[in-house]
Amino acid sequence: MISVVILGAGNVAHHLYKAFFSSENVTVTQWYNRNIQSMRPFNNEVQLTDNLSQLIEADIYIIAVSDDAISELSQQLPFEDRLVVHTSGSVSPYDIDMKNRRGILYPLQTFSREANIDFSEVPLCIETLMRKDYDQLKELGQSISNNVKRVNSDQRASLHLAAVFVNNFTNQLFRIAHEITESQGAEFDLLKPLILETANKVQDLSPFKAQTGPAKRNDKKTIKRHLKMLDNEDHKDIYKLMTASIQKTHAPAFSIKKLKKIKKD
Amino acid sequence: MISVVILGAGNVAHHLYKAFFSSENVTVTQWYNRNIQSMRPFNNEVQLTDNLSQLIEADIYIIAVSDDAISELSQQLPFEDRLVVHTSGSVSPYDIDMKNRRGILYPLQTFSREANIDFSEVPLCIETLMRKDYDQLKELGQSISNNVKRVNSDQRASLHLAAVFVNNFTNQLFRIAHEITESQGAEFDLLKPLILETANKVQDLSPFKAQTGPAKRNDKKTIKRHLKMLDNEDHKDIYKLMTASIQKTHAPAFSIKKLKKIKKD
Ligand SMILES: NC(=O)c1ccc[n+]([C@@H]2O[C@H](COP(=O)([O-])OP(=O)(O)OC[C@H]3O[C@@H](n4cnc5c(N)ncnc54)[C@H](OP(=O)(O)O)[C@@H]3O)[C@@H](O)[C@H]2O)c1
Ligand SMILES: NC(=O)c1ccc[n+]([C@@H]2O[C@H](COP(=O)([O-])OP(=O)(O)OC[C@H]3O[C@@H](n4cnc5c(N)ncnc54)[C@H](OP(=O)(O)O)[C@@H]3O)[C@@H](O)[C@H]2O)c1
């Protein structure tokens, strides 16, 4: 049985708490937040506190607070030489105060309070500064996820950056599609099955193999018509840049000059 | 019972054929392609032909050939005043030769030969030039899909353009994420659950509400670090443009000057 204390009560902390609570191998000994309010519903299940000096002993302390607050909170911990990990994709393990043993438990998924997530499918990227801590953090990860991976800090940073592309930027493309369809009185809803299939396709096929469409075919007539339809200059720029990017990926033999021309047109 | 003749034997034609074959309300009377080869496996189920002069009578003729070939093929049809529709998102119904009654049956999904698609969930955008043809085309659509919508040509064009954003451009963001992770020896596979969740999220939530991340939070430190990590200039440009786009969507009050600066940096 591994005992943990969770620090923070935001999106990640709530999802982690629920996953640990359902696991037979983990017990959440205590749950800390600077403000106890949002943890109240769990009052009967776990000891709650908003006082760092009252933190009790546990095998692993998980700091799941905003990136900017990790370092300071770690300095305020009233103990030494215990295993303390944070859950951020972009913060260094060295940002945790060095009086404790340090590590990372980064869940590679987007969490919000409302959305239910099957934690067993969430990739958990783990790292510890000391070799001897690794096995226990791995065991903790495996008690809630089937997908635990050792990932060093450079790899974690690249995954976090890549996540911005596949999540934030992709979602903004959906937003632009929403604006384009609404401007013609068409329903964005009609695009939803296509959005799902686009994500499904790359579960088995590489994005390279999954690509189709006018940019890949270099269908100049359609590209020109699309650019004419777009009256928002930012959407036009994105259309040109993404088209050029697809063409570079799929036709490295294309003259670079030609591509630069498309980009600037 | 509605009888149809399918013309063309590519991705869309094959998926349509299978959907009609499974429907109780439709019979595929004949299947034409200029080259009979790829239809051979269906020889026992349906009459095949590669000869336009042998086309037999049917209620609806569906032209599912490449966009550029629709007009010419429609001119070669050896009959008049029958209902002829094509399946393209971007070709006008007026491209079909005017000797016949004309319409559109545009399936808003991405089809490839290997991938199985549940046709009942595919949005079918329909349009007919003559009012009296509408009901029959709608009945045909409803025999294979639960999601049949009347969509005029401007709306269809905007849906087709929006589909390029949510399918082709999104898939290219996945490709870039693949390159970013591989360059650090990290696994693209770890991003797959996030890719699925990103698509799932907008099934119930608007893309506006679903947005998160450094661009929306205007987390300058992270944005700067990400730009420093990207050594591919095209990926950097895409990062800047998508970040500026998100910020424009979520903070219309942002000074435009500031945004232009981010874009150009
Ligand atoms: N959300 C995701 O999708 C996601 C995914 C993977 C990793 N992460 C990482 O997980 C961590 C938590 O993210 P989140 O989304 O759960 O954040 P969140 O929902 O915004 O919650 C932030 C938490 O941090 C606390 N906090 C903020 N500033 C603090 C300070 N100065 N001192 C003490 N506590 C402070 C907040 O306390 P109050 O409740 O009192 O405001 C709250 O409990 C971050 O490192 C993030 O990078 C997030
Ligand atoms: N694929 C999609 O995801 C999708 C989605 C919605 C709508 N559409 C639309 O559906 C239509 C068909 O697309 P597809 O993806 O099925 O195409 P495809 O797989 O490339 O197949 C093209 C078909 O057109 C025939 N063809 C090409 N040029 C021809 C010509 N000059 N004369 C006669 N036949 C010719 C081909 O014959 P051969 O077999 O002899 O080469 C083949 O049967 C297009 O209008 C497309 O815009 C496609």
Give a verbal description of the structure.
Chains A, B: Residues 122-245 form the DUF2520 domain. Chains A, B: Residues 4-86 form the Pyrroline-5-carboxylate reductase catalytic N-terminal domain. Chain A has 265 residues and is of the alpha/beta class. Chain A folds into 2 domains: 2-151, Rossmann fold; 156-264, ProC-like, C-terminal domain (N-(1-d-carboxylethyl)-l-norvaline Dehydrogenase, domain 2, Orthogonal Bundle). Helices cover 46% and strands 15% of the residues of chain A. Chain A has 10 helices and 8 strands. The first copy, chain A, has helices at 11-22, 67-76, 131-142, 153-183, 192-204, 207-210, 214-217, 220-229, 233-250, 256-264, and strands at 2-7, 26-32, 47-49, 60-63, 83-86, 101-107, 124-128, 148-150. An 8-stranded mixed sheet of chain A has the order 3-2-1-4-5-6-7-8, sandwiched between helices. In chain A, strand 1, helix 1 and strand 2 form a beta-alpha-beta unit. In chain A, helix 9 runs antiparallel to helix 10 (256-264). At the A-B interface, helix 4, helix 5, helix 6, helix 7 and helix 8 of A face helix 4, helix 5, helix 6, helix 7 and helix 8 of B. One NADP nicotinamide-adenine-dinucleotide phosphate binds at residues 8-13, 33-35, 38, 64-67, 69, 73, 87-89, 107, 110-111 of chain B. One NADP nicotinamide-adenine-dinucleotide phosphate (NAP) binds next to helix 1 and helix 2 of chain A.
